[in-house]
């Protein structure tokens, strides 16, 4: 038995699942999902609290400990027993924690059984050998929303570019705030020089900023909030339906590009994934994707 200890948002949960799914396929053992970090709502200041989001996909979750039991274990009145609770929720299995963001090749070559894996595991190198299975696991439980069907038709019938801009939360995080107007305009110019007939479909959490920044861009469609869907699943379906991608340093957008790419797809990413050299992020972006220079804001 192996388990993926999930945390953070949808894009990160997808990486965590994909990495451990690869190990499960390699070892031919049981795979379980550990939701303890998602259920524990204590404010530890380390990351924004998120919910379990992989239920938008057809995969059937097998929990290490049932979420109902976890919620009772992490109830406010039990907090003083948190160390005991933490040990109980691992069921005695050791926890292997990722050290640094670079790929740990020993975990590909000789993965460990009877282990809970905790980390970000942000690289396709962990699961590329099982890419078809991962794509199948990440097939959506629901079709696109009725309100999105006209938009999906436009995306399908044009040389569409998913232009994803993430700002609001990242503006407060210097480590993540590395894509600004200069980066996106460079990326748009690069795309137009190589794909002159494209239509840009703009997905963003800051629509007004996008209206102003891309005001001179004629061939664009700004995608509104009504297309989000549960856990942003509908949004992800629309993004990955595009033929080309301009993305920020976002795992959510990374997955849209990875799931949506095919022969001839052009994916543009920022050269600097973080606003610090503290992290070795060389393995996050696949070599086949184009890295455009950007400067930390």
Topology of helices and strands:
Blueprint: E1 2-5, H1 10-27, E2 31-34, H2 36-39, H3 67-73, H4 82-89, E3 95-97, H5 105-109, E4 115-118, H6 131-137, H7 149-157, E5 160-165, H8 181-194, E6 199-204, H9 207-213, E7 220-223, H10 233-240, E8 244-246, H11 251-260, E9 267-270, E10 290-292
Parallel strand pairs: 1-2, 1-4, 3-4, 5-6, 5-8, 6-7, 8-9, 9-10
Fold and architecture overview:
This protein is of the alpha/beta class and 297 residues long. It has 2 domains: 2-137, no CATH class; 146-292, 3-Layer(aba) Sandwich (Rossmann fold), CATH 3.40.50. The chain has helices at 10-27, 36-39, 67-73, 82-89, 105-109, 131-137, 149-157, 181-194, 207-213, 233-240, 251-260; strands at residues 2-5, 31-34, 95-97, 115-118, 160-165, 199-204, 220-223, 244-246, 267-270, 290-292. The protein has a 6-stranded parallel beta sheet, sandwiched between helices. Strands 2-1-4-3 form a 4-stranded parallel beta sheet, covered by helices on one side. Helix 1 links the parallel strand 1 and strand 2. Helix 1 packs across helix 11 (251-260) and helix 10 crosses helix 11. The chain is globular and about 60 Å long. The termini are far apart.
